[in-house]
Design brief:
By secondary structure, the protein is an all-beta fold. The protein has 2 helices and 25 strands. It is rod-shaped.
Length: 376
Protein backbone atom coordinates (compact mmCIF):
# COMPACT_ATOMS: atom_id res chain seq x y z
CA UNK A 1 0.00 0.00 0.00
CA UNK A 2 1.27 3.47 -0.96
CA UNK A 3 -0.04 7.03 -0.84
CA UNK A 4 -0.52 8.36 -4.40
CA UNK A 5 -1.75 11.66 -5.88
CA UNK A 6 -2.47 12.17 -9.59
CA UNK A 7 -4.18 14.61 -11.93
CA UNK A 8 -7.60 14.27 -13.63
CA UNK A 9 -8.69 11.18 -11.70
CA UNK A 10 -12.53 11.16 -11.52
CA UNK A 11 -15.23 8.51 -11.49
CA UNK A 12 -19.00 8.43 -11.16
CA UNK A 13 -20.74 6.77 -8.16
CA UNK A 14 -24.38 6.19 -7.27
CA UNK A 15 -23.62 4.80 -3.76
CA UNK A 16 -25.75 5.97 -0.84
CA UNK A 17 -25.20 6.06 2.92
CA UNK A 18 -21.92 6.41 4.84
CA UNK A 19 -20.13 3.31 3.54
CA UNK A 20 -17.54 2.84 0.79
CA UNK A 21 -18.16 4.49 -2.59
CA UNK A 22 -18.55 2.18 -5.57
CA UNK A 23 -16.47 3.53 -8.47
CA UNK A 24 -18.50 3.13 -11.67
CA UNK A 25 -16.28 4.49 -14.42
CA UNK A 26 -14.61 7.71 -15.58
CA UNK A 27 -16.25 10.27 -17.92
CA UNK A 28 -14.47 11.14 -21.17
CA UNK A 29 -11.33 13.16 -20.53
CA UNK A 30 -10.60 11.63 -17.06
CA UNK A 31 -8.76 8.53 -15.82
CA UNK A 32 -10.03 5.91 -13.41
CA UNK A 33 -8.72 5.45 -9.87
CA UNK A 34 -7.22 2.12 -10.96
CA UNK A 35 -5.19 3.86 -13.70
CA UNK A 36 -4.30 7.00 -11.78
CA UNK A 37 -3.89 5.80 -8.17
CA UNK A 38 -3.52 2.02 -8.32
CA UNK A 39 -5.02 -1.01 -6.59
CA UNK A 40 -5.03 -0.98 -2.73
CA UNK A 41 -3.33 2.46 -2.50
CA UNK A 42 -4.49 5.53 -0.54
CA UNK A 43 -5.18 9.04 -1.81
CA UNK A 44 -6.95 12.30 -0.96
CA UNK A 45 -10.49 12.48 -2.43
CA UNK A 46 -13.48 14.79 -2.80
CA UNK A 47 -17.05 13.68 -3.51
CA UNK A 48 -20.25 15.68 -4.06
CA UNK A 49 -23.85 14.84 -4.93
CA UNK A 50 -24.80 16.52 -8.25
CA UNK A 51 -28.46 16.75 -7.17
CA UNK A 52 -28.17 17.68 -3.46
CA UNK A 53 -26.03 19.85 -1.16
CA UNK A 54 -23.89 16.92 0.00
CA UNK A 55 -20.07 16.97 -0.17
CA UNK A 56 -17.03 15.52 1.59
CA UNK A 57 -13.17 15.65 1.51
CA UNK A 58 -10.87 13.11 3.12
CA UNK A 59 -8.29 10.36 2.90
CA UNK A 60 -9.54 7.23 1.09
CA UNK A 61 -8.31 3.68 0.63
CA UNK A 62 -8.87 1.71 -2.58
CA UNK A 63 -9.65 -2.00 -2.49
CA UNK A 64 -7.83 -4.60 -4.57
CA UNK A 65 -8.89 -3.83 -8.12
CA UNK A 66 -9.77 -0.21 -7.22
CA UNK A 67 -13.52 -0.74 -7.61
CA UNK A 68 -14.46 0.84 -4.27
CA UNK A 69 -13.07 3.70 -2.19
CA UNK A 70 -13.29 3.41 1.60
CA UNK A 71 -13.65 6.79 3.31
CA UNK A 72 -10.84 6.28 5.84
CA UNK A 73 -10.49 9.77 7.36
CA UNK A 74 -12.90 12.72 6.94
CA UNK A 75 -11.22 16.18 6.87
CA UNK A 76 -14.27 18.33 6.07
CA UNK A 77 -17.87 17.77 4.92
CA UNK A 78 -21.37 19.19 4.69
CA UNK A 79 -22.18 17.07 7.77
CA UNK A 80 -20.16 19.11 10.29
CA UNK A 81 -16.93 17.42 9.11
CA UNK A 82 -18.37 13.94 9.75
CA UNK A 83 -19.12 11.22 7.18
CA UNK A 84 -22.00 12.28 4.94
CA UNK A 85 -25.02 10.00 4.68
CA UNK A 86 -25.37 10.40 0.92
CA UNK A 87 -28.87 10.29 -0.57
CA UNK A 88 -29.75 8.91 -4.01
CA UNK A 89 -28.29 10.61 -7.06
CA UNK A 90 -25.12 10.80 -9.10
CA UNK A 91 -21.89 11.65 -7.25
CA UNK A 92 -18.60 12.80 -8.69
CA UNK A 93 -15.60 11.23 -6.87
CA UNK A 94 -12.20 12.74 -7.72
CA UNK A 95 -8.62 13.17 -6.46
CA UNK A 96 -7.73 16.53 -4.89
CA UNK A 97 -5.38 18.05 -2.30
CA UNK A 98 -7.42 19.25 0.71
CA UNK A 99 -6.30 22.66 1.95
CA UNK A 100 -6.05 21.30 5.51
CA UNK A 101 -3.29 18.91 4.38
CA UNK A 102 -0.93 21.53 2.95
CA UNK A 103 1.98 22.87 5.04
CA UNK A 104 0.34 26.30 5.40
CA UNK A 105 -3.09 24.80 6.03
CA UNK A 106 -1.88 22.40 8.74
CA UNK A 107 0.47 24.93 10.39
CA UNK A 108 3.01 22.11 10.47
CA UNK A 109 6.32 22.34 12.32
CA UNK A 110 9.22 20.29 10.92
CA UNK A 111 11.33 18.97 13.81
CA UNK A 112 13.24 16.11 12.26
CA UNK A 113 14.57 14.55 9.09
CA UNK A 114 16.68 16.36 6.50
CA UNK A 115 16.37 18.52 3.41
CA UNK A 116 19.00 17.93 0.70
CA UNK A 117 20.93 15.81 3.24
CA UNK A 118 21.07 18.70 5.74
CA UNK A 119 19.68 17.69 9.20
CA UNK A 120 16.86 19.87 10.51
CA UNK A 121 15.02 20.16 13.81
CA UNK A 122 16.46 18.57 16.95
CA UNK A 123 20.12 18.96 17.90
CA UNK A 124 20.25 16.34 20.70
CA UNK A 125 21.32 12.73 19.98
CA UNK A 126 18.68 10.05 20.56
CA UNK A 127 18.81 8.24 23.92
CA UNK A 128 21.32 5.41 23.83
CA UNK A 129 23.51 6.81 21.05
CA UNK A 130 27.08 7.64 21.96
CA UNK A 131 27.57 11.35 22.53
CA UNK A 132 31.36 11.47 22.66
CA UNK A 133 34.13 9.86 20.63
CA UNK A 134 37.31 11.03 22.31
CA UNK A 135 40.78 11.45 20.86
CA UNK A 136 42.00 8.56 23.01
CA UNK A 137 39.64 6.22 21.13
CA UNK A 138 36.99 5.74 23.81
CA UNK A 139 33.26 5.80 23.26
CA UNK A 140 30.81 7.05 25.88
CA UNK A 141 27.08 7.70 26.05
CA UNK A 142 23.75 6.67 27.57
CA UNK A 143 22.31 3.14 27.34
CA UNK A 144 25.39 1.32 26.09
CA UNK A 145 26.50 -2.00 27.58
CA UNK A 146 29.14 -2.73 24.92
CA UNK A 147 31.89 -0.31 23.87
CA UNK A 148 34.74 -0.23 21.39
CA UNK A 149 38.04 0.55 23.14
CA UNK A 150 39.72 1.33 19.83
CA UNK A 151 36.91 1.77 17.29
CA UNK A 152 37.36 1.33 13.54
CA UNK A 153 38.57 4.20 11.46
CA UNK A 154 35.78 6.32 9.99
CA UNK A 155 34.19 4.30 7.19
CA UNK A 156 35.61 0.98 8.43
CA UNK A 157 33.98 -1.85 10.38
CA UNK A 158 37.13 -3.54 11.75
CA UNK A 159 38.51 -2.48 15.16
CA UNK A 160 42.16 -1.55 15.42
CA UNK A 161 44.50 -4.54 15.87
CA UNK A 162 44.74 -5.68 19.47
CA UNK A 163 41.74 -3.72 20.67
CA UNK A 164 39.04 -5.57 22.49
CA UNK A 165 35.79 -5.54 20.57
CA UNK A 166 33.33 -6.12 23.38
CA UNK A 167 33.13 -5.14 27.02
CA UNK A 168 29.86 -6.60 28.26
CA UNK A 169 27.82 -5.54 31.25
CA UNK A 170 28.88 -8.75 32.99
CA UNK A 171 32.51 -7.66 32.84
CA UNK A 172 33.93 -9.97 30.14
CA UNK A 173 36.51 -8.75 27.65
CA UNK A 174 37.33 -10.42 24.34
CA UNK A 175 39.19 -9.59 21.17
CA UNK A 176 42.33 -10.05 19.07
CA UNK A 177 45.86 -9.82 20.45
CA UNK A 178 45.14 -10.00 24.17
CA UNK A 179 47.00 -12.39 26.47
CA UNK A 180 45.89 -10.85 29.77
CA UNK A 181 42.34 -10.02 30.77
CA UNK A 182 40.57 -8.54 33.74
CA UNK A 183 38.14 -11.04 35.26
CA UNK A 184 36.26 -8.22 37.00
CA UNK A 185 37.36 -5.12 35.09
CA UNK A 186 37.19 -1.57 36.44
CA UNK A 187 34.15 0.54 35.83
CA UNK A 188 34.30 2.43 32.55
CA UNK A 189 36.65 5.36 33.06
CA UNK A 190 38.46 3.75 36.03
CA UNK A 191 41.76 1.84 36.08
CA UNK A 192 41.45 -0.17 39.30
CA UNK A 193 39.82 -3.63 39.23
CA UNK A 194 37.00 -4.40 41.62
CA UNK A 195 38.17 -5.21 45.14
CA UNK A 196 39.21 -8.84 45.57
CA UNK A 197 39.16 -9.75 41.90
CA UNK A 198 42.25 -11.26 40.35
CA UNK A 199 44.03 -8.85 38.09
CA UNK A 200 45.54 -11.17 35.49
CA UNK A 201 44.42 -14.27 33.63
CA UNK A 202 47.24 -15.16 31.29
CA UNK A 203 47.15 -17.12 28.04
CA UNK A 204 49.00 -19.95 29.80
CA UNK A 205 46.00 -20.46 32.03
CA UNK A 206 47.19 -19.22 35.43
CA UNK A 207 45.56 -16.75 37.78
CA UNK A 208 47.44 -14.23 39.85
CA UNK A 209 46.64 -11.37 42.20
CA UNK A 210 46.92 -10.08 45.74
CA UNK A 211 47.14 -12.86 48.34
CA UNK A 212 47.22 -15.80 45.92
CA UNK A 213 49.88 -18.47 46.40
CA UNK A 214 48.19 -21.36 44.59
CA UNK A 215 46.92 -21.38 41.03
CA UNK A 216 44.55 -23.21 38.74
CA UNK A 217 46.39 -24.94 35.91
CA UNK A 218 43.28 -25.01 33.72
CA UNK A 219 40.91 -22.31 35.01
CA UNK A 220 37.31 -21.92 33.80
CA UNK A 221 36.71 -20.14 30.53
CA UNK A 222 36.03 -16.43 30.88
CA UNK A 223 32.42 -16.19 32.07
CA UNK A 224 32.28 -19.88 33.06
CA UNK A 225 32.34 -21.54 36.47
CA UNK A 226 33.57 -25.06 35.64
CA UNK A 227 37.35 -25.73 35.35
CA UNK A 228 38.64 -27.08 32.07
CA UNK A 229 39.41 -30.80 31.80
CA UNK A 230 42.25 -31.64 34.18
CA UNK A 231 41.04 -29.14 36.80
CA UNK A 232 43.43 -28.71 39.74
CA UNK A 233 47.00 -29.87 39.43
CA UNK A 234 48.05 -28.37 42.74
CA UNK A 235 46.00 -26.82 45.54
CA UNK A 236 48.04 -26.65 48.71
CA UNK A 237 48.13 -25.07 52.16
CA UNK A 238 47.06 -27.56 54.79
CA UNK A 239 47.59 -30.37 52.29
CA UNK A 240 47.91 -30.98 48.57
CA UNK A 241 45.24 -32.05 46.07
CA UNK A 242 46.76 -33.05 42.74
CA UNK A 243 46.08 -35.02 39.60
CA UNK A 244 43.68 -34.98 36.63
CA UNK A 245 39.93 -35.05 36.70
CA UNK A 246 39.27 -33.44 40.10
CA UNK A 247 35.83 -31.88 40.41
CA UNK A 248 35.80 -31.42 44.19
CA UNK A 249 37.53 -28.49 45.79
CA UNK A 250 38.39 -27.19 49.22
CA UNK A 251 34.99 -26.46 50.72
CA UNK A 252 36.36 -23.51 52.68
CA UNK A 253 39.01 -21.89 50.46
CA UNK A 254 41.04 -18.84 51.53
CA UNK A 255 39.20 -15.54 51.68
CA UNK A 256 39.96 -13.19 48.79
CA UNK A 257 43.35 -11.71 49.58
CA UNK A 258 44.24 -14.52 52.01
CA UNK A 259 46.49 -17.55 51.61
CA UNK A 260 45.22 -19.83 54.43
CA UNK A 261 42.11 -21.95 53.95
CA UNK A 262 39.33 -21.60 56.50
CA UNK A 263 39.47 -24.10 59.37
CA UNK A 264 38.14 -27.53 58.47
CA UNK A 265 39.17 -27.59 54.78
CA UNK A 266 36.89 -30.27 53.28
CA UNK A 267 33.35 -30.27 54.66
CA UNK A 268 32.20 -33.16 52.46
CA UNK A 269 33.93 -35.74 50.28
CA UNK A 270 31.55 -37.44 47.85
CA UNK A 271 31.64 -40.22 45.29
CA UNK A 272 28.93 -41.26 42.81
CA UNK A 273 26.77 -42.65 45.65
CA UNK A 274 27.11 -39.71 48.04
CA UNK A 275 29.07 -38.70 51.12
CA UNK A 276 31.77 -41.36 51.62
CA UNK A 277 31.31 -41.18 55.41
CA UNK A 278 27.62 -42.25 55.15
CA UNK A 279 25.85 -45.50 54.24
CA UNK A 280 22.84 -44.10 52.34
CA UNK A 281 19.46 -45.71 53.14
CA UNK A 282 17.10 -47.43 50.72
CA UNK A 283 13.85 -47.93 52.73
CA UNK A 284 11.48 -50.69 51.54
CA UNK A 285 8.01 -51.63 52.81
CA UNK A 286 7.45 -54.79 50.75
CA UNK A 287 9.26 -57.80 49.29
CA UNK A 288 12.43 -56.42 47.67
CA UNK A 289 14.99 -57.76 45.13
CA UNK A 290 18.41 -56.11 45.37
CA UNK A 291 19.68 -54.03 42.40
CA UNK A 292 23.17 -52.89 41.39
CA UNK A 293 22.69 -49.36 42.72
CA UNK A 294 22.23 -50.80 46.23
CA UNK A 295 26.03 -51.26 46.41
CA UNK A 296 27.27 -49.19 49.36
CA UNK A 297 23.78 -48.62 50.74
CA UNK A 298 21.69 -50.15 53.51
CA UNK A 299 18.24 -51.65 52.91
CA UNK A 300 15.73 -50.84 55.65
CA UNK A 301 13.03 -53.53 55.26
CA UNK A 302 9.74 -53.71 57.20
CA UNK A 303 8.00 -56.67 55.53
CA UNK A 304 8.36 -59.19 52.70
CA UNK A 305 12.07 -59.97 53.05
CA UNK A 306 14.99 -59.38 50.66
CA UNK A 307 16.16 -61.51 47.69
CA UNK A 308 19.79 -61.65 46.50
CA UNK A 309 19.67 -62.05 42.66
CA UNK A 310 22.30 -63.38 40.26
CA UNK A 311 24.14 -61.35 37.64
CA UNK A 312 23.84 -58.03 39.47
CA UNK A 313 26.83 -57.53 41.76
CA UNK A 314 30.62 -57.63 41.30
CA UNK A 315 33.36 -58.76 43.63
CA UNK A 316 33.82 -56.22 46.42
CA UNK A 317 30.24 -54.87 46.35
CA UNK A 318 28.69 -54.54 49.81
CA UNK A 319 25.04 -54.15 50.90
CA UNK A 320 23.78 -53.87 54.49
CA UNK A 321 20.29 -55.11 55.43
CA UNK A 322 18.42 -53.80 58.50
CA UNK A 323 15.21 -55.48 59.73
CA UNK A 324 13.21 -52.42 60.70
CA UNK A 325 10.36 -54.45 62.23
CA UNK A 326 9.42 -56.64 65.19
CA UNK A 327 9.07 -59.73 62.94
CA UNK A 328 11.62 -62.03 61.31
CA UNK A 329 12.62 -61.22 57.73
CA UNK A 330 13.92 -63.81 55.25
CA UNK A 331 17.02 -63.10 53.14
CA UNK A 332 16.50 -65.34 50.09
CA UNK A 333 19.30 -66.95 48.08
CA UNK A 334 18.22 -66.29 44.45
CA UNK A 335 18.49 -68.81 41.61
CA UNK A 336 22.15 -69.32 40.57
CA UNK A 337 23.39 -67.61 43.74
CA UNK A 338 25.52 -69.05 46.55
CA UNK A 339 24.75 -67.34 49.86
CA UNK A 340 27.25 -68.58 52.46
CA UNK A 341 26.80 -67.97 56.20
CA UNK A 342 30.10 -66.44 57.43
CA UNK A 343 32.23 -68.76 59.62
CA UNK A 344 30.52 -71.95 58.39
CA UNK A 345 29.97 -74.15 55.35
CA UNK A 346 26.22 -73.50 55.44
CA UNK A 347 24.55 -71.97 52.36
CA UNK A 348 20.98 -71.02 51.52
CA UNK A 349 18.31 -68.68 52.84
CA UNK A 350 18.96 -66.77 56.09
CA UNK A 351 16.57 -65.42 58.75
CA UNK A 352 17.15 -61.93 60.17
CA UNK A 353 15.55 -61.44 63.59
CA UNK A 354 13.59 -58.37 64.65
CA UNK A 355 15.75 -55.24 64.39
CA UNK A 356 18.72 -57.35 63.31
CA UNK A 357 21.49 -56.07 61.03
CA UNK A 358 23.34 -58.10 58.37
CA UNK A 359 26.15 -57.28 55.94
CA UNK A 360 26.28 -58.93 52.50
CA UNK A 361 29.67 -59.05 50.70
CA UNK A 362 30.09 -60.25 47.10
CA UNK A 363 33.28 -62.39 47.06
CA UNK A 364 33.02 -63.81 43.53
CA UNK A 365 30.66 -64.27 40.62
CA UNK A 366 27.19 -64.73 42.18
CA UNK A 367 28.88 -65.77 45.44
CA UNK A 368 28.21 -63.91 48.68
CA UNK A 369 29.16 -64.09 52.36
CA UNK A 370 26.64 -62.85 54.94
CA UNK A 371 27.12 -62.07 58.62
CA UNK A 372 25.44 -59.98 61.29
CA UNK A 373 23.56 -59.62 64.56
CA UNK A 374 20.31 -61.57 64.80
CA UNK A 375 21.18 -63.65 61.70
CA UNK A 376 20.53 -67.42 61.61
Amino acid sequence: MAFVLNDRVLEISTSTGTGPLALEGAPSGYQTFLSGIGSSNTTYYAVFNTTANEWELGLGTLNAGATTLTRTTIYSSSNANNAVNFSAGTKNVFVTLPASQTVSGASATITGGSINNTPIGQSTAAAGSFTTLSASSTVSGTGFSNYLASPPAIGSVTPATGAFTNLSSSGVVSGVGFSNYLASPPAIGDSTPAAGSFTNLSSSGTVSGTGFSNYLASPPAIGGSAPAAGSFTNLSSSGTVSGLGFTNYLASPPAIGGSTPAAGTFTTLNDSIGNVRDIPPNPQTGAYVLVGTDDGKHISITTGGVTVPSGVFSTGNVVSIYNNSASNQTITQGAGVTLRFAGSTNTGNRTLAAYGLATLLCVGTNTFVISGAGLT
